[in-house]
Structure of DUF308 domain-containing protein:
Amino acid sequence: MLFLAIMGLIVFLLALFSVIYARQTGGGWKFLTVVTVLSAVVTIYAVIKLPYWPYNQSHAATTSQTASSSTSSSSTSKSKTTSLSSSQVVFNEGSAKREAATTKLNEENILKQLQENYKSIGTVAFTKATKTYTITPTGKKYVKSLKTIKSYPDENQKAITTITSNFKSLSKSLKKNLAAGYTIQLLQPDTTDKTLLSVKDGVITANNFK
C-alpha cells in the first residue's frame, strides 16, 4: 500500500501541474482533470490502508488474536482428546486387571470348596490353562466302588446315572459361579491322565464308565 500511495501521489502531482499548465495554454485540460481526480482517489485510498493508522493496527491485532485463539483452542481440544484417550486406555487396563483378579479369586475359592467337599474321596486340582478342575480318586472305598462300576457297568447303571447327574449339576454350578468354559473331570482310579468322566457347561464330554 505504501508503494501505491507514493505512485498515486506522484501521478496526482504530475496530473495537477499538467491541468494548470493546460488551462494556461488552452490545451485539453478536461482529460487531465479526470486523471488528476482518479490519482487523488487512489492516493487517498492507499494512504488510508497504510498499517500505520491506529484503526489498521487494531484490526491487524484483532485478526492476529483471533487466529491465535483459534490455534490455541484447536491445540486445547487436541490435548483434551489425547488426554481423554489416554485416560480411557488406563481405565480399560484397570478394569481388565480387576476382572482378572476377581476371576482368579473365584477360581481359588471354588477349588477350596471342592477340596473340602471331596477330601474323603480324593484330591482336587485346578489347571488354569484349560480351566479344568480335576478330581483324582484316592479314598479306598471310593476307588473300589469306581473299579467295580467300571468293571460291571451293566449291573451298575443306577450308580453311573447318579455319578453323571452329580457331575452335571456340579458343572452347571461352575458355569453359574464362574463362567462358561470350565470343565470338571473325574480320573480313573490309580491313574493320573485317564479320564473316567468329564463334563463341561453341564454337558458330558467324556464318559468311560461304559
Summary: The beta strands are 122-127, 132-137, 183-187, 195-200, 203-207. The chain has five helices and five strands.
